[in-house]
Structure formats: structure tokens, C-alpha cells
Specification:
Layout: H1 16-26, H2 44-59, E1 63-66, E2 72-76, E3 86-90, H3 104-120, E4 128-132, H4 146-151, H5 157-161, H6 171-177, E5 193-199, H7 204-208, E6 212-218, E7 220-229, E8 233-234, H8 246-264, E9 268-278, E10 284-285, E11 288-297, H9 300-320, E12 324-333, H10 340-353, E13 357-362, H11 367-371, E14 377-382, H12 398-416
Parallel strand pairs: 3-4, 3-5, 5-14, 6-13
Antiparallel strand pairs: 1-2, 2-4, 6-14, 7-11, 7-12, 8-10, 9-11
Helix pairs in contact: 1-3, 1-12, 3-12, 8-9, 10-12
């Protein structure tokens, strides 16, 4: 892709204190019970957080657009009315027991870029659009990365409107109820590029003592929902040889998933993260178990081989203990490779600013993974303490957030092309 007229000077820095204060002001909305955040998608707390973000953006001179999935697009004009915008952002929604930084850092770092440009009186040829994607987490309404998935054409808008939460409420109704269903057609916007800053959500950068992760690839993902069917019977009166214990089948499949992942390590991971046991009574042998296997790898062939082995071996293991196994893929995306030119601009920015860095593969899914299907895309990562995320104890330092935002700033400004 085309690059800017010149690279920003190393003295071009963001206001790290202001960014830090903004992050923690957002955390006051939808606080968790242990210092984190509970601002789940399309809740009243989400609506309040969006309104605060809107206020900050409008104070910075940005104009707002909202699409029919509720995604917020806050635009700073460029000098060339025909130049496509450079988009930057992430998400403000959280897990039920989420941290203060997951997603939020990327959105508010985008706002800080604009604030700093305003402070310095710098104009760019391309507009810059700070973006808050709706329902990245997928915790209340599956799947994750919902709005960016609809934007990229991999999810159907009418279908996801009908997805329900645990109380039977639909995503579409809740989006409308909180007042954030826009009129703009989803996916109608065209991008020059998209960049996203995110905490690593893993331990590599901190363990290696690196300030910046330069994300070259994302992991592909397969979620396989497995159903193991046996026969409910009394735990006290059913002889051991006559049991059809679906719980035992779960144990067999759990070990198989671990073995498959270990065989493919370090280039893949896998685990069972969600389990429902029926009837889930102390004195009844489980008659059915439904669980979800999560396999991830940045190598597509390896990822598919892992799924194929599960589908081949799990039925045999279950048959041997007289229970049945069936499975279907309920979530998937192939491994993305990010734009090489943008990736290099992130490396260059880290070098220019004096930050230590290394190439890294994102272990989690992000909105950037879907946008990468359409437009040049790249990601910057900063460390998080002990690699902990999706937990109220999630933590980063102000220095890490500043470093990540400054590298993002340089990459965005270079791509958007400083004028003059």
C-alpha cells in the first residue's frame, strides 16, 4: 500500500498521562466487583460508556457516524477530500469479569492520537477515524467480533440480530433499546488502512522484557461443539460395568484435546473451555455432556489437521466406553496474515522511538482479523502482567500503554501522511 510523504520525527509523542487518566475514567462506568469492568455489549453500562466516548471525541472536534450494528466511527478530517480514511480502534465492551484495558486501550489510544495531533496543530492528508466496534467480546451474544464480522461480510446481519442472551433477549432488540442502532449500512465505509492496539493477553512480551509486540499473524480458530450421550442412571445402584457415563466420555475427550494440542505445540493450542453436564445432579450418572473444544493455530493446515483428528479419534474413544459422540463446528476463522507494509511501519516506529520489540502472533481473535479480509490491517501489542486477561486482575503499566500508543501514533500518522 502507498505510504506517507515522510516518517514522523522521534520527538512526536503522545500524552501518556492523559491517556492513562482517560482509560481509568472509562473504567468508572460498569465497574466490576474486584477492580475490573463489567460493561457487556448493548447493556445500559455499554450505552453510558459510548456516550462518554462520544463526548470526549466531540470535544476533540470529531464527527460521529453509527452503523446498523452500533459501531461508532469518530472522524477527524484530512486535507484531501478524496483520500480514504485511516481507521484506528478496537472495542469498549468487556467480559462480565473483565479488565480495564482489553479493547479499551485501543479505542482510547485512537482518541489520544487525535488529541495529540490537535495539540501540535498537525494535519494529515487522509482522514483519521477512531472506531469502537460493537460486541467484540461475544460473551453476552455469540459470536465474538460480531460487528466487524458483519462489516467484513462473514456474518449475516439479520441473523445476528436474532441471537439471544441467557435471558432470551435478542441482540437486535437490545441494541435498539439502548439507543445505539444507527442508520448507516454496515460495511459501506471504505478504508485506506486499519490499525489496532491491544494488550497481548499472553505472557510472552513481559517474559522477554519487550515493550512492543509487532503482530505479523493472527491465530485461526475452530470452536467444535461436542455432544457425548450416555444414559442417566442412579449412581448408587447401577453396577460399574453397566454404566453409560457421559462424564467419563468427557474425560476421554478432554485428554484427547490436550494430546492433540501438545503434539502440535508450540504452533498450536487447544482446550475445552465450556461444559454443560446433564442432569448435573449429585447422585445421577451423567446422561449427556455438551462441551466446546477451542483449537487455534496460525497455520491453516495444522489447524484443520487438529480438527480432523478430533473428529476421527473421539468417536472411537467414546464407543469403547459405550457412549456416543457427535460434533459440529460452531465458530471459525482462518489465520490472518497482516499487511507487510503496515507491519514494517510498526517495527520502524518502535525502532525510531527507542522501544524494544519482537514479532508476535496474536493468540486471541480481534476485530482486526476480520477487517484484514478487506483492507490493509496491522496490530500493535503491549505487555500485560503475567499475561492475564479476561479477568478483573488484568493489569498493565502506564509506561506500557504509553509505548504502545506512541508506536500506534507513528504508524497511523505515517499512513495518514502528515501535511507540510
Amino acid at each position: 500500500m502507498a505510504q506517507g510523504l515522510g516518517k514522523p520525527g522521534e520527538n512526536l509523542r503522545i500524552n501518556g498521562d492523559r491517556l492513562w487518566d482517560t482509560i481509568h475514567a472509562m473504567a468508572e462506568i460498569g465497574p466490576g466487583i474486584a477492580g475490573g469492568s463489567n460493561r457487556q455489549t448493548v447493556t445500559d453500562e455499554d450505552a453510558e460508556g459510548r456516550k462518554l466516548f462520544q463526548t470526549w471525541c466531540e470535544e476533540a472536534g470529531l464527527t460521529m457516524g453509527v452503523d446498523q450494528m452500533g459501531t461508532m466511527f469518530m472522524r477527524r478530517e484530512g486535507t484531501d477530500p478524496d483520500a480514504l480514511p485511516v481507521y484506528v480502534g478496537s472495542h469498549l465492551d468487556t467480559q462480565p469479569t473483565g479488565g480495564r484495558y482489553d479493547g479499551v486501550l485501543g479505542v482510547l489510544a485512537g482518541l489520544e492520537i487525535v488529541r495529540t495531533l490537535n495539540d501540535l496543530g498537525i494535519q494529515t492528508r487522509h482522514p483519521i477515524v477512531v472506531t469502537n466496534w460493537t460486541n467484540e467480546e461475544g460473551t453476552r451474544f455469540a459470536p465474538a467480533m460480531m460487528a466487524s464480522g458483519v462489516f467484513a461480510g462473514v456474518l449475516d446481519q439479520d441473523d445476528v440480530y436474532q441471537h439471544t442472551d441467557a435471558e432470551g433477549k435478542t441482540f437486535g432488540e437490545e441494541l435498539e433499546r439502548i439507543g445505539w442502532k444507527g442508520e448507516e449500512e454496515v460495511g459501506a465505509r471504505k478504508m485506506h488502512a486499519f490499525l489496532e492496539l491491544h494488550i497481548e493477553q499472553g505472557p510472552i512480551l513481559e517474559a522477554k522484557g519487550k515493550d512492543i509486540g509487532v503482530v505479523t499473524h493472527g491465530q485461526g480458530l475452530r470452536w467444535i461443539e461436542c455432544t457425548i450421550t450416555g444414559k442417566e442412571s442412579h449412581t448408587g445402584s447401577t453396577p460399574m460395568p453397566m454404566r453409560k457415563n457421559a462424564g467419563r466420555g468427557l474425560a476421554q475427550v478432554t485428554e484427547l484435546v490436550h494430546e492433540i494440542a501438545m503434539t502440535n505445540a508450540p504452533n498450536a493450542v487447544g482446550a475445552i473451555g465450556h461444559v454443560d453436564v446433564y442432569p448435573n445432579s449429585r447422585n445421577i450418572i451423567p446422561g449427556k455432556v455438551v462441551c466446546t473444544v477451542d483449537f487455534r493455530s496460525h497455520e491453516l493446515d495444522r489447524l484443520n489437521d487438529m480438527v480432523n483428528r478430533l473428529m476421527s479419534d473421539a468417536p472411537k474413544l467414546c464407543e469403547a466406553i459405550d457412549v456416543n459422540f457427535s460434533a459440529e463446528i460452531v465458530g471459525q476463522f482462518d489465520p490472518p496474515e497482516f499487511d507487510k507494509t503496515l507491519v514494517q511501519s510498526i517495527r520502524d516506529a518502535a525502532e525510531r522511538l527507542g522501544y524494544s520489540h519482537q514479532d508476535i502472533i496474536s493468540g486471541a481473535g480481534h476485530d482486526a482479523c476480520w477487517i484484514n479480509k478487506l483492507y490493509p490491517t496491522a496490530m500493535v501489542m503491549c505487555p500485560c502482567v503475567d499475561g492475564l486477561s479476561h479477568n478483573e486482575a488484568e493489569d498493565i503499566s502506564k509506561e506500557w500503554s504509553t509505548a504502545g500508543a506512541e508506536v500506534l501514533f507513528h504508524a497511523v500518522v505515517e499512513t495518514a501522511e502528515i501535511v507540510g
